Amino acid sequence: MQPSSLRPTPPARAATTTTRPLAAPFARLHIGSVGVASAASVATATATPRPSLARRPSGLRPLLAVSCWLLCVCSRVLARETGRASVCESARLARECAKREGEGGDTKKSALAAHQPSLPHATPLHISFLAPHPQRAAAASSPGSSDSSGASRFAATAGKALAINLNPKWYGVFAEIGAGQEVARWFFRVGGAAGTIAKSVSAYDMLISDTMYGAAARYVTRERVEAMLEYEYLSCFLNLRKQRGRSTAFFAFADTVVARAFGRDNECHGWLGLKFQPTPGAPPSTVMLHVRMFDRTAQEQQEALGVLGVNFVSGVLSAADAACGVTKRGVAGGPGGAAPAHAPTPPGGEVIDFILAALLDDLDRSRLEVDAIDFAGPFFAAVDNRVAALRLVQQGLCDAALFDPSGALLVPHDALYKKNVLAVRGRFRPFTNLHNDMLMAAAQQFFCDNSSSAGGDVGSSLSSPVDGVASASTECVVRDDTLVLLELTTRDMMEGGDLLDWTSNSGIQEDAFLQRIDALATMGYTVMISNYRRYFKLAAYLSTFTQEPIVIAMGVPTLRELFKDKHYADLPGGILEGFGRLLKFSVQLFVYPTLDPKTGELVTAANLKVDPQAQKLYEFILERGTIVPVAAFDRELLQHGDVSKRVAESIRAGTAEWEGLVPHHVRDQIKAFNLLGYRPAPAALPRGNGVGGATSALLAGEGEGVAVGEGAAVAAAAVGGGGGKKGVGGKRA
């Protein structure tokens, strides 16, 4: 039996005693976000009911009374200064928050708090950081928000984070380097994080980071986020699979970011990745994306990154749930989240739209862009990353996407950084010998010293090939770090509002697009898909990543079109603004000549006549050196006029003229895959001649194109690798 000195006072007797017992809420005092508590009083409040003050030594009564009075005064001062809620309201809100966090299940503590008598002339004190003032409760919905608009601004983000926390299927790790731990913070902030987060870590120190993930020369790279995902996923999966592997799908989220540095206008970008099991026990799959951030302060970038991360995690995990038939009670196929009897159906293009559509929820496109995304693993076996990149451009998440010669998606920051760029725009349907000659001539003039190509008969300089390249070109020296870039645009200035040949009323025809990408990539070129119509926007985009010289090659017809006022009607400054924005960058326009269809005279950039009202402007830009005539050309090819159109007409007519107007591998491709309406003679039906399906699209474009064929080594072989001083000849494309 308990000694009488420790026996708790019944509630009925406590109400009649002369000296009232101390209220339990005094056991805990929170000032702002810092807790100040008496260890003895907390232990007493959580373990056993408090003994009556009447049975304590009488010398403590005055001291406790004064302490209670001081704490009461402090609580009211804090409430007024910090904007916290009133005492009663704080107590109610704190109990609700504690219950949600799993801290309100102590029946003894709840019963004790319910029966506590109040002090005379004082309200029971309970100050807690868990109970914000109603006027500031809205701001708590946003980890980075300091105003009352946070609840409406980030309501969708908070809902997504809470939904994941309440889903018993998911359990994983968050690892973030740079720009704080803003993604994990959302999951902690909304509540219920104990059911989702096994670990949250941020290895800011380079030595610590190298110890965990391996040494690295650069830390904001795809390779780094891959190493982080692998390490964190295995640490979670291997340690917990025996305990909860049958009912849990493990995941690891990682990001490595460089945000705005103090006092510097640096490029702000980062990689985000998620490695996850679509169902418990399934092999993992991975999604990674690259983001560029445009906010002017680091705090705003942290806020945007946190929202993007939640949207990203929610989109991928929700797509997995949808594909695997998950209900609100858990994974379909077994009670309580047991593993389903069937494997998830690998999603195709619909999962791309599902994930991309939600990435910018609660965000504005002006704050960031997602310019690369990569899906890998068995769950995404039906996803084509080239289609994913195309949809990034279509849905406005970025303005351009790049592909390397293998068809893999590139990060523009890495592909273009400190590179000389030779870009050619067009539809490339099909590649012709004229396109080939245009690229060779522009490459020869761009990559070589001016003195090496001066003098001589430039019109015949390509007529004496050595291994497919003109003899005059063998003396040229290739510039280091140069990239040849072929651009397909979804908005063609020359179309006049008509649909492109690889679009339809319902959008881009992805099969035709993939054929075009395959065709260009197999020739060793980097390919870019963009939504740029105006050349100054293309120049601005390229200049974002490189300060080296940029050349855009085009034909005379395209240059003439550029100087028409109708293309600048929506700009306040009209055509002057358009060219003014182009001239601010280190960009030159290399112009390939043509023949006047009426007189047969040669028209070059030097003697071109544009609209009369723009002629003076043209002459100024020409004298300035922004417009450069291409000196080397094949006059015989110019005799055919629009070669792409002539090839198409010849194929439809069933004549053989077109075969001499295209490189030989283009000819073989047309015949092998019956492109552009080609129909073989009944006696000889080609059933495949070794030309791969990847190259079957070579003929899918026209316009101011680039070249292919025997002489494309000038740009493809010499520059595609991007380095070294070597001749441009010697190898066939």
How far do the termini sit from each other?
Answer: 97 Å
Helix content: 25-40%
Q: What is the approximate shape?
A: elongated
**What is the count of distinct domains?**
3
What does the radius of gyration come to? Answer: 35 Å
Mean pLDDT: 72
Q: Are there runs of 5+ residues with pLDDT below 50, and where?
A: 1-9, 11-54, 85-89, 103-149, 326-343, 449-477, 493-500, 502-506, 688-733
> In what order do the strands lie side by side in the largest sheet?
12-11-19-16-13-20-21-24
Structure description:
It is built from 26 helices and 24 strands. With 733 residues, it is an alpha/beta fold. It folds into 3 domains: 124 residues, no CATH class; 250 residues, CinA-like (Maf protein), CATH 3.90.950; 263 residues, no CATH class. The strands form 7 sheets. Strands 12-11-19-16-13-20-21-24 form an 8-stranded mixed beta sheet, with helices on both faces. Strands 4-3-5-6-7-10 form a 6-stranded mixed beta sheet, sandwiched between helices. A two-stranded antiparallel ribbon has the order 1-2. The N terminus and C terminus are likely disordered.
SSE order and pairing:
Blueprint (H helix, E strand, L loop, with lengths): L10 H4 L13 E4 L2 E4 L1 H9 L12 H23 L4 H14 L6 H8 L19 H4 L12 H4 L1 H11 L4 E8 L4 H9 L6 E5 L4 H8 L8 H23 L4 E10 L10 E8 L8 E9 L4 H27 L1 E2 L2 E2 L17 H9 L10 E9 L8 H10 L5 E4 L5 E2 L1 H5 L3 E6 L7 H15 L2 H4 L11 E2 L2 E2 L11 E8 L13 E2 L2 E2 L1 H12 L4 E5 L4 H11 L4 E6 H7 L11 H10 L3 E6 L1 E2 L6 E2 L8 H13 L2 E3 L5 H4 L4 H11 L10 H10 L42 H5 L13
Parallel strand pairs: 3-4, 3-5, 13-16, 13-20, 16-19, 20-21, 21-24
Antiparallel strand pairs: 1-2, 5-6, 6-7, 7-10, 8-9, 11-12, 11-19, 14-15, 17-18, 22-23
Helix pairs in contact: 8-12, 9-12, 12-13, 13-14, 19-21
